[in-house]
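Progress against Task 2.4 (sequence-to-structure conversion) is shown through the following example record, which the project officer requested during the mid-term review.
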Amino acid sequence: MPTTIVNSTPANTDNNGMGFLLGIIVFIIFIAVILFYGLPYIQRSFSGMQPQINVPDHVNVNIQKEK
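Structure tokens generated for the chain above:
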């Protein structure tokens, strides 16, 4: 009975982790964008009320001392 020998090519191991490093950098940038733009949007959606700001009609800016 003849024996068949299959020589498979060896795995390419000259990859020095560059893909992993780029993946981590892209992931960090993605998280930073979510935190920078997403958190204010989420906070605004949960607040429900707009802040009420009272501004007086007249402000006395007289800086002269009374005698």
